[in-house]
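Dear colleague,

Thank you for sharing your sequence with our group. We've completed the structure prediction you requested, and as agreed, I am returning the results in plain text so they can be pasted directly into your records. Please verify that the sequence below matches your submission; if there's any discrepancy, let me know and we will rerun it promptly.
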Amino acid sequence: EKVISLYARGMSTRDIHDQLQDLYGIELSAEMVSKITDKILPQVKEWQSRPLNPVYPFVFMDCIHYKVREDGRILSRAAYVVLGVTVEGYKDILSITVGANETSKFWLGMLNDLKNRGVKDVLFFCVDGLPGFKEAIQAVYPQAEIQRCVIHMLRNSFKYVNYNDLKKFSSDFKAVYNAPNETAALSELENIKEKWGKKYPYAISNWENNWEDVSSFFQFSNDIRRIMYTTNIIEGLNRQYRKVTKTKSVFPSDTALEKMLYLASENVVRKWTQRYRNWDQVLNQLIVLYGERLTNCL
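Please find the predicted structure tokens below.
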């Protein structure tokens, strides 16, 4: 248990060897440490295929990239992370899958996996922009709405803006995503286009071209907006993963990476004891808007 606990906090097999020797005077080889941590592999498999809730109001999807050794070559791998918010207002990690680099085909497989594990409906998918993402979601959950992360959209726009103008441009844009409704937001976007459009056309067209997937949250109150307009929640989780994996520049296998991420997830989920603020109000609003899609599962 001590070895697994130290491994879950990101310590390398060599560090664990040294730690056990310092504390207990025990000599434990790196290979033995690896064998001990392999004992949890059946748990990982069970966790990856466990049944899920029939409905999640919000689901966040993202991926982190790692290096993995395979047949003597070092390859890039993506860890696909799916995080859900339950009807009770608690966060939960639904799945982590290690696969080839981000592709819409892989996301489609992951969404079908969620469906096969019992997820009948999702109200909102909150995602970063990925080609083919939208098609994959619509193919498996046609009723779900898609919310592109506003923070990511801003970052994409900032790439086209001169550093000297960045502060003013960013300040002007607040009027768009803080607007009380979609009509007001479009009006503010038009104002920004008049002011900055000639100088930074791509920074504005980025929003115009993706408006359909950015604008979902305007129809809701601030309590719901706060949950869905940014993928910060999953980025926070990714930071926790990076913290425990930073000692490993290359993983010996996909299995070793999955094992480490599973153990890190257990530690993170244990701390998620609070439900979302004002969740009772959020849920009541969602029931008014989505009625049977939610109440059938409550």
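Summary note from our side: The two ends are 37 Å apart (CA to CA).

Kind regards,
the structure core
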